[in-house]
Amino acid sequence: MLAGWRVGRPETTIRAGDTMAGTGDALGAEDLRELSSNAEAVVANLDRVVDGLQADARLATQTVVRPHPLLVLVRSGQVSVIVAPACVLERGRALLEPYVQALAQREAVLVLCGRPRDSRFDLAADSEIAAVLPEEPTEDELVTGVRRALELLHLRRTSTLPPAGAMPYLGVQASPTDSMRQADLKTVLSRVAQLEVLHKVGIALSAEQNRGRLVEMILLEAKRICNADGGTLYIRTDEDELKFAIMRTDSLGIALGGSTGGEISLPPLPLYDPVTGAPNLKNVATAAAMLKQSVNIPDAYHAEGLDFSGMKVFDQRNNYRSKSFLTIPMVNSDNYVIGVLQLLNATDPDTGDVVAFGPDQQSIVEALASQAAIALSNRLLLDGQKELLDSFIRLMASAIDAKSPYTGGHCERVPILTEMIARSLCDAREGPFRDFQLDDDEWYELHIAAWLHDCGKVTTPVHVMDKATKLETIFDRMEIVRARFETLEREAEIRVARALREPGADADALRRQHEAEVAGLRDDLEFLETANVGGEFMSPDKQARVRQIAARPYRQGGEERPLLAPDEVANLCISRGTLTEEERVIINMHIVHTIRMLEALPFPRNLKRVPEYASGHHEKMDGTGYPRGVYGVDMSVPARIMAIADVFEALTAQDRPYKPGKKLSEAMRIMGFMKKDNHLDPEIFDHFVRSGLYRKYGEKFLPPALLDEVDEQALLGIQPTPIQLPDGAMRAERQQTLLPPYRSR
Ligand SMILES: [Fe+2]
Ligand SMILES: [Fe+2]
Known about the structure:
This protein is 47% helix and 11% strand. By secondary structure, it is of the alpha+beta class.
């Protein structure tokens, strides 16, 4: 695709019928790669852009041409929109040289695909950039962006605007024409200011990710354009109501919603009559929404057919006089009204008098509302998807917590503690974390990773996860062992009864022998019962006794066999806890499944680190953790935070059977040993101690009886054992592969 282009210098003027071929040198793949590291993808995207623009019926009367692999021109009469990827502004501004005059004379304007990675770009309010679309815009975003840019160009041509002259962001200069020099300066400057605001807002709108700040920006900029005293932005709800999102009345000092945090208590406005189902055309905001038309009212007190009773009550209470209204529906690319923008009391900047909204103001606010509708619609859609994803990961976490009483509320509490530690590290102004920060994307990555950190536990068999005793499989096999001992007792009774019937039997001797045998059996059973619980260390002599008991002959189904099967012996001889090595690996495998599950998910670029953050919580700083045995220096800070949160939650959890939660001092003492052994990150652990986060968490989730004193100085004084770090190649290999017990399962 790339090698086939011959471009060199594009044409120097923009004409109908422009063709994509130039006469210069062949532009090879190398040249394009100098402009963009992923030139293939950028060009392919522009191919799609051309196809989309050419095929769209809404641009049927425009000419779409491709003068260069990285430029697309959409021409309409005397004006042209130049669609270009952001890399053209980053590295290939020479490509725009032929269009400088057209840009300066406001006969052309740029629509960018993607935002240039240029720190000066935020300051750029240059009028040559009409819109910044996503890197890979949808056809609707593209067509809407191009159409708005064309509208803007036509609007400029009908006004008496001067040329742009200097375009500081592009770094070029052009000369104005004589006719433009003669324009009325006051009108022109005001118009320029409005257009500049519109452009700036267009750029800012596409960049704003917070819904509250977005609606605030839309309303405040619209107010500023019209010098309006007040305004309201309504958002349409799923229940077909217009909900107050933000309100301002400057002269009354009213500022509610948006970033103010002030709640708006006014009830939403129904778009349809709840009884008849008819469209609600009584209220100006609902009428504008239902009719998809702007409503410009010079004086509401003289307006007919609309209900302004609420406004009149408001005026009376506040000694205010609402007069001029400009109400504009915000329609998205699906032609669906997503909100309404309403401005109140336009004010003459010279006299301060309340005046009607002029047609120029209306057209520019309509252009703003149109851009804003797309930005807001995208934001609402993204927020909706984010909420859905959030609900899904919480559902997944609660399913894991519900699967076993042994995990209790672990999956729910680890994210809380993880985020507490991360927040505190971001707030640190001194020490090793004084420069540590997470941006919005990294916070969201950490949030998802923490909620899904044990998602692999869905695959762990419940009978292993919940194994309370050594002989437990899907039930505790101690029951069978007890039954066998009962059988042995019965057999002993039968034996003694028979012996007593023998002539000349020594009854006393037989009874003593029987009692001794029964006592021995009961003692052995009691010993096995104790061993089965797994609370005590099984020393080699205790293990020998298990084997000795196991070897006792036992008849079942007419066959003689050992009293305990080999697997039962192996389980009862577990030296600590209740799990065999095999079962421990099965439990530990949950983290491998977590990695596999998360790596299989198509996380977008801004969430790519979720698997790394989530998968490191059983790794240790000295490389003795699992499943990869990576070293702390190779782990991200969020992954190391999660390891501490995971351990502290598990030690203090109150909702697990057979295992009471530990007191703060006990939990922290154990974690102190883990600091010494370099199992936990010593610096994050010290911050955890020094900040008192362990106590803040404890006060929220632990009963007061467990909140005892912790010797912080002793914990901070622990010196971690120095780590012998292997060479980089070996560490890099560990990051890529699983340790042998965790492979191919
Ligand atoms: Fe885990
Ligand atoms: Fe966990």
